[in-house]
Specification:
A hairpin with a 6-residue loop joins β14 and β15 (458-478). The chain has 607 residues and is an alpha+beta fold. 26% of the residues lie in helices and 27% in strands. The radius of gyration is 23 Å and the shape is globular. An 8-stranded mixed beta sheet has the order 4-5-7-6-8-13-9-10, with helices on both faces. The chain has a 7-stranded antiparallel beta sheet with strand order 19-18-21-16-20-17-22. Strands 1, 11, 12, 14 and 15 form a 5-stranded mixed beta sheet that branches. The two termini are 39 Å apart. The protein has 2 domains: 81-345 and 352-428, Zn peptidases (Aminopeptidase, 3-Layer(aba) Sandwich), CATH 3.40.630.10; 476-605, no CATH class.
């Protein structure tokens, strides 16, 4: 079974877009012809187109620290690069040995950025202290900005190293609380930066965007939207210039398990403000392993991808493509910036395959997609480059963010309608149909543009390409009415609540029809593809069998007639890629069961 992510209609940006959404809401006939590109051959860039942290979760376990200069798995140090480090300033200064002709392909942008990293003579990036001071300077002593907007500092906890995790809220709402924003009805956009400490351009760009929202032309967009901005999600990694958090866990692969306070902080923002658009800013490996494997260098200023994960509502993908990705590509092209789909390659020299971004539910992009948000990752060409082309990288992020914010403001009413419809649609699927347990990318070929390392000229390569635009369902089951969790599974219940999932505490003993799991095979492996070595996951194969579920008072029920049902499925199906059973959050297979009839127990919602 193939799951398309790109059978998308073509329509004009505003009134016809609203008509399309409403037509789909009122009709079951939302299937449309494919646009003129097929799975594995994506459209080319340029085609028209306030409270404290969650403190009830267990403290993260810290494995042995990795070396300060180490990157994320899949991001090895550059070959042929002379590096001089400055750990206290969180930057590695490489002196690339590639030709001047390559550097000439990435000229300085016409815009000058003013963050501390760009001070005259500066060799370090913006420090954590400077970042905090910059954010506070925008508060105007707590008063509204001249155009009536409000800027509020949000405290969402501390990193593992004790650095405050702080975000900024920009809104036209004077009360500026999550509840008041939801009542006012303006959709919220969540911007996330520097989840990986060795990817600094996103944080620098978000400081500039924050200034434009507080004091510049972007402030007018707050008539239509709210913006929540977390510029640096991994301040510990930023200090050391390494990808991982202090515990050695990749924060961007922790959005389902919530093992780190950094991921818990981002989940808190998503849970409280319920963003309809989420933009996660990253950087990608610029030189290695591509030079060694293909004799070529990375070409694109930006790699872009929206959520691609099993059980994602189709309308969310359609809106992401039409309302955001295509205008984003046009905006980048108008600024002479190039773009491509997001992709990676392994570190194995013999493996010449390219793969689009992950289809697992543990990344920010996919986890927020399962919250029914339009969710993007935007990566600039930066890992391994130190400060080289930093201004261009920051400029690329800034151009992309402006395009996304303008799109959200333009489609504010459409986004509210879309969220309302999709939330109801997902909840209505409980007890019926099929749910995908695991899915994979589909293999194909793709012509990718890279750079000649000597001449800097474009070089076309035809590569084996695993596409995330069409997923192959590996395993599916009937969608239950909900899941039962035993009394001993309070850890799982609390993590689900931290994600925003409704969890109910059962108040009386009862029996309900359901299915239990039986293990048929299992092995210890690693977790998600970019988090290898940080978590020994149990890869378990299970069968389900009909049974009567004896639910005792004090156990839990997770109903699927709720908007975040697909997020709960990803966590609780034991053989899903990043499940709570696989990572021992649910500590025994008998601690979870599928409920196949709506129970009549007396229950209360966990706060």
């Amino acid at each position: 079974m193939l799951l398309p992510f790109h059978s998308l209609p073509h329509f004009a940006p505003r009134e016809s877009a609203r008509g399309w959404v409403l037509a789909c809401m009122l009709s079951a006939a939302c299937s449309t012809p494919l646009p003129p590109y097929a799975p594995g051959t994506p459209a080319r860039p340029g085609t028209p187109a306030t409270q404290g942290p969650v403190s009830t979760l267990p403290a993260p376990q810290a494995p042995p620290a990795t070396p300060a200069a180490a990157g994320a798995p899949g991001k090895p140090a550059m070959a042929g690069v002379l590096e001089t480090g400055s750990a206290t300033l969180g930057v590695i200064q490489p002196k690339p040995l590639y030709a001047d002709a390559v550097a000439a392909r990435f000229p300085e942008p016409p815009v000058k950025y003013r963050t501390p990293a760009f001070d005259a003579g500066r060799t370090a990036l913006t420090s954590n202290a400077e970042l905090a001071a910059w954010m506070r300077a925008l508060l105007r002593d707590g008063r509204a900005t001249p155009d009536g907007n409000t800027v509020r500092l949000l405290s969402v906890g501390s990193s593992q190293g004790g650095v405050p995790l702080e975000a900024l809220l920009f809104t036209r709402d004077a009360e500026a609380t999550p509840a008041s924003l939801l009542r006012a009805g303006r959709p919220t956009v969540l911007l996330l930066g520097q989840q990986r400490g060795d990817e600094p351009a996103g944080a620098e760009a978000l400081l500039s965007i924050a200034e434009e929202l507080a004091q510049g032309p972007l402030g007018k967009l707050l008539e239509h939207i709210n913006v929540v901005l977390l510029p640096r999600a991994n301040p510990d990694g930023a200090v050391l210039g390494r990808a991982m958090t202090t515990s050695g866990i990749d924060a961007n692969r922790d959005h389902l398990l919530l093992r780190t306070p950094e991921a818990q902080a981002m989940a808190q923002l998503a849970r409280e403000f319920r963003p309809v658009v989420v933009i996660d800013l990253h950087e990608y490996s610029a030189i290695e392993p591509y030079l060694a494997k293909f004799g070529a260098l990375q070409r694109f200023d930006a790699l872009v991808q929206y959520a691609t994960v099993a059980n994602l509502p189709e309308l969310v993908t359609k809106a992401a493509e039409e309302w955001f990705r295509r205008p984003l590509l046009a905006s980048l092209a108008a600024h002479d910036l190039s773009a491509e789909w997001s992709y990676t390659t392994s570190t194995q020299a013999a493996d010449k395959k390219m793969s689009m971004g992950s289809v697992d539910p543990d990344s920010a992009r996919n986890a927020n997609g399962l919250r029914n948000a339009i969710s993007f990752v935007i990566e600039t060409r930066g890992v391994g480059l130190g400060r080289l082309h930093l201004a261009r990288r920051v400029h690329t992020h800034a151009v992309a963010i402006r395009s996304m914010l303008e799109g959200a403001a333009q489609h504010a009413a459409d986004l509210n309608q879309l969220r309302k419809f999709v939330d109801a649609e997902v909840a209505a699927q409980a007890c019926q149909g099929q749910a995908i347990v695991s899915a994979s990318r589909t293999p194909s070929e793709y012509t990718l543009t890279m750079l000649d390392p000597v001449t800097g000229a474009d070089r076309k390569l035809t590569v084996t390409w695993d596409s995330a635009l069409m997923l192959e369902a590996r395993k599916s089951r009937t969608r239950p009415c909900g899941f039962w969790l035993g009394e001993a599974q309070s850890d799982a219940a609390l993590r689900l609540r931290a994600l925003g999932v409704l969890v109910q505490l059962i108040q009386q003993n009862g029996v309900v029809r359901g299915e239990v799991y039986r293990e048929v095979a299992g092995e210890v492996g690693t977790g998600s593809e970019l988090n290898a070595g940080t978590d020994a996951a149990l890869r378990v194969e299970v069968e389900s069998a009909a049974a009567l579920i004896d639910a005792s008072a004090g156990s839990y029920y997770v109903p699927l007639d709720q908007p975040l049902a697909n997020l709960a499925l990803a966590a609780l199906e034991p053989d899903a890629p990043n499940s709570y059973v696989a990572h021992r959050v649910v500590n025994e297979l008998s601690g979870v069961a599928r409920v196949l009839a709506r129970p009549s127990w007396r229950m209360t919602a966990l706060p």
